[in-house]
Amino acid sequence: MVDYLVENGFVYTMDPGRRVIDGGAVAVDGDKILDVGLTAELKARYDVDQVIDADGKAVLPGFVNVHTHLPSIFVRGVYGVVREGLYQVLFPVKEYLKPESCYELGLASCLEALTSGSTTIQETYNYMDHFARAAEETGIRADLGEQIAEADYLAIKDGVYKYIPEQAEEMFKRAVDLESKWHGGADGRITTSWAPLAPDMVTPWVYEEVLGHHEPGIKISTHVEQSTREVKQVKKLYGKTSVEHLHDLGVLGPDLIGAHCIHNSDEDLRLMKEAGASVLHCPRPYLLGGTTAPMARWREMNIKVGLGTDNVNHTMWETMRTAVYGARIRETMGEPTSPSYYDVLEMATIKGAEVMGFQDSVGSLETGKKADLQLIDLKCPHIYPTADVTSSLVLYGATVNVDTVMVDGRIVKRDGKLVGLDVGKILDEAQEITVGIWEGLFKDRPELRALIKS
Fold first, then answer.
1. Using N-to-C axis directions, what is the helix angle for 242-249 and 228-238, rounded to 10°?
2. For 376, phi and psi rounded to 5 degrees?
3. DSSP result, 83-149
4. Distance between CA 417 and CA 402 in Å, rounded?
């Protein structure tokens, strides 16, 4: 007897053979995928406890969202409005975030990720111990890193790099405690990584401390050449690029996952490829600010690339689309050919899992892997009729199409609705916290209020 049979679907296995099975089925037993194949074959093979009818639906692995700052949802209405939002607003406002608020904000943002089909996230932010509780309760699969920053968040707004070792020491202690308490937690759904913020936001001793605690296979997630301000500061301090700096520190390697990599030089990319480092590509916030990234070049060089949502809007559907838009813009400028639509789906699933080192457990629908999957309703006016399902999923798919989501063999969304959580209450609490954070900032820094007027 198997627990579930998802039958009659358009099944994207995302396996090495790139099998897409029309009239396909997925058998789920416990937290694992038991079998994948044609519906008639699996129905004849197994007795089933519950049948999930996927007729008219695509069946995909859950998205693997490789770079998120989920608790930062409180910057909605500001980030994206302010063109230089990272240093002007996003960093300074963190001073007004109470540690315990990362639980309530974590609940709300995990629901956003899950409802849009992301079953695995790689999350780096502050106060991750509180966020981990939210990840445990909502049922999402999460790799968590406590961000370590040495630069003064408030001074950075004015372009001043004031380094506070005591601040980084406190954050590093939280990172060590997070690893001790949560790595392997929630029946293995929660793992931990190391997250020194960026080469301009910490000085070398932080990376050296991370290396002293790091074990092979555990990821080191850091922002790399995400802004011209970072590039200039690192050049000023060390006379080299961020990638060269990380290479010389011994940080650049197969466990290094670098977020954004917008301003990489050709030599930087060569060093990353040789080291086996990966890129966490978050196209949406950059495209919103008028910037694209050389994603097709990364892929042409066989650098591993996964897709992430970064801040504010945590739907991989928007991320996939903007990845296409950015690559097409670059292609008109002489960059390599942009990826196919199937390539983009791979980056959102199995390629993201490879970036995280999770490819043996998630990212595709294969026997023995974790039962993390989503059902996408295709029979909607913005998708049907279509001559090609794959391109229509990438170009037109949205959260509204995500009918069912399963993580670890447990249904967390069914018939378009999240299961087992008071969504209204969670969102109301997150809104109350958000209002309080901004009131605190504007009281102390009234000049910043003018920045967010849209």
1. 50
2. -110, 120
3. TTHIIIIIHHHGGG--TTHHHHHHHHHHHHHHHTTEEEEEEEES-HHHHHHHHHHHT-EEEEEEEE-
4. 9
- For the chain, give the number of residues: 454
Please report which residue ranges of 146-265 form alpha helices under DSSP H: 165-182, 204-213, 228-238, 242-249
Residue type at 112 in one-letter notation = E
Gap between the Cα atoms of 454 and 445, Å rounded: 18
Which among 353, 402, 344, 410 has a CA at the least distance from the CA of 374? 402
Tell me the C-alpha distance between 254 and 271, whole Å. 11
Distances in Å between the Cα of 237 and the Cα atoms of 182, 200, 296 are 35, 9, 31
Which strand (E) or helix (H) includes residue 444?
helix 423-444
Element (H, E) at 18: none
Q: Using the structure block, give the residue that is written with the tokens 């991320």.
A: 319
Crossing angle, helix 242-249 and helix 204-213, to 10 degrees? 50
How far is residue 77's CA from residue 116's CA, in Å, rounded to a whole number? 20
Cα–Cα distances (Å) from 74 to 78, 126, 429, in that order, read: 9, 14, 11
The pair of three-digit structure tokens given for residue 219, joined into one six-digit string: 């990821």
Q: What is the Cα–Cα distance from 181 to 140, expressed in whole angstroms?
A: 18
SS3 299: helix
User: Closest by alpha carbon to 304, among 281, 323, 320?
Assistant: 281
H/E run at residue 319: helix 316-332
Are 117 and 374 in contact, with CB atoms under 8 Å apart? yes
* Cβ-based neighbour number of residue 55 at 10 Å: 12
* 186 token code pair: 């929630």
C-alpha span between 314 and 119 (Å, rounded): 12
Q: What is the pLDDT along the chain (454 residues), one digit of tens a residue?
A: 899 999 999 999 999 999 999 999 999 999 999 999 999 999 999 999 999 999 999 999 999 999 999 999 998 877 665 555 556 677 778 888 999 999 999 999 999 999 999 999 999 999 999 999 999 999 999 999 999 999 998 888 788 999 999 999 999 999 999 999 999 999 999 999 999 999 999 999 999 999 999 999 999 999 999 999 999 999 999 999 999 999 999 999 999 999 999 999 999 999 999 999 999 999 999 998 889 999 999 999 999 999 999 988 899 999 999 999 999 999 999 999 999 999 999 999 999 999 999 999 999 999 999 999 999 999 999 999 999 999 999 999 999 999 999 999 999 999 999 999 999 999 999 999 999 998 888 888 787 777 666 5
Cis peptide before 385 (omega within 30 of 0): yes
Instruction: Say how far apart CA 419 and CA 21 lie, in whole Å.
Output: 28
Taking a C-beta distance cutoff of 8 angstroms, is the pair 65, 113 a contact?
A: yes
